[in-house]
Design brief:
Blueprint: H1 2-21, H2 27-34, H3 37-49, H4 53-76, H5 80-101, H6 107-128, E1 129-131, E2 137-139
Helix pairs in contact: 2-4, 3-4, 4-5, 5-6
Length: 146
């Protein structure tokens, strides 16, 4: 029985590793992933305004996962400035997460940290994103050579 449990756990880990190893290389894949950020950021802001600090963390986890998932896109397209922005977002996100773990939470510091994180996002958006006719962010045509 214990052996089967270990085998099952091993398969879950292996399957998870295979899923994580999939490469994101197309603008469509990037856009699909990035569309998760705005709702997460809005939910984080709403929770922050309500002083529901524990509810901010899951939203940051969504944003963190998008940054992890989209990193490969920028590597594939050899966009060092976008990789730098991705790393900056992760650094700022980690700082906000740490502020949210403090007791007591300093709301002003968290708001300032969220603004810094948003600024890191914006640095990449200025170079690689634009709004479509429906005001949604999309990858700027021709920005990655495809």
């Amino acid at each position: 029985m214990r052996f089967r449990l270990y085998v099952a756990a091993g398969l879950v880990v292996l399957t998870g590793s295979i899923v994580l190893a999939q490469k994101m290389t197309t603008p469509e894949e990037l856009d699909k992933a990035m569309k998760k950020v705005q709702p997460a950021m809005q939910a984080a802001q709403k929770a922050l305004k309500s002083e529901a600090y524990a509810d901010v963390k899951p939203q940051l986890a969504i944003i963190r996962q998008v940054m992890v998932d989209t990193r490969e896109f920028w590597v594939h397209h050899k966009k060092d400035d976008a990789l730098k922005a991705n790393e900056d977002v992760m650094t700022k996100l980690d700082a906000v997460d740490k502020l949210l773990s403090a007791t007591p939470v300093d709301p002003a510091a968290v708001v300032a940290g969220m603004k810094e994180m948003g600024g890191a996002c914006l640095s990449c958006h200025k170079l690689y994103r634009e709004r479509d006719s429906e005001n949604n962010y999309i990858l700027k045509p021709g920005s990655v050579g495809e």
